Amino acid sequence: MKENFLPVVFDCMIFLQGLIKERGEAVNCLEAFENGAIQLFVSEEILREIADVLTRPKLQGKFSLLTTERAEKLLQTLRQKATFIKNAPQSFNYSRDPKDEKYINLAVFAKVAFLVSRDNDLLDLMTDFTDEAKEFRQRFRQLKVIEPQEFLQIIKTKEQK
Q1: For residues 41 and 107, is the Cβ–Cβ distance under 8 A?
Q2: What are phi and psi of 82, to 5 degrees?
Q3: CA 77 – CA 27 distance, rounded (Å)
Q4: What does the pLDDT look like over 96-107, one tens digit per residue?
Q5: Does the structure show a pLDDT above 80 at 41?
């Protein structure tokens, strides 16, 4: 990992919200990545999901800022600047939402400190009392699933030091 960078994984919703709005927490998260304040990890599986979601005609029709050009630019930036992990092994099975496993497994394999999300299935891993959530917290103590607002506050605090 690069020195002085916060290692992080963003879920797909952060990328989507970062492109459909002119400002906001998701936009600020993407700017932190583009400005080099964080070390963002991605995998091929995650890039495929991002490309699929960002180019859906229904979403592009609903959000005027979500254009194919902006989506392609983001994907190109991710390929150039993000840290790419080819094959993150399966380390956690998440029956509540198996589609979220790719984010958890990448975060665990890359040993990131934060998985930034607005997805309640992921966020609940930090607070739920289910056996699955308790196992997650016990096995992956270094990994925190947090919302963009909290992540941005962590970046701000780190920059002030």
Answers
A1: yes
A2: -75, 160
A3: 14
A4: 999 999 999 999
A5: yes
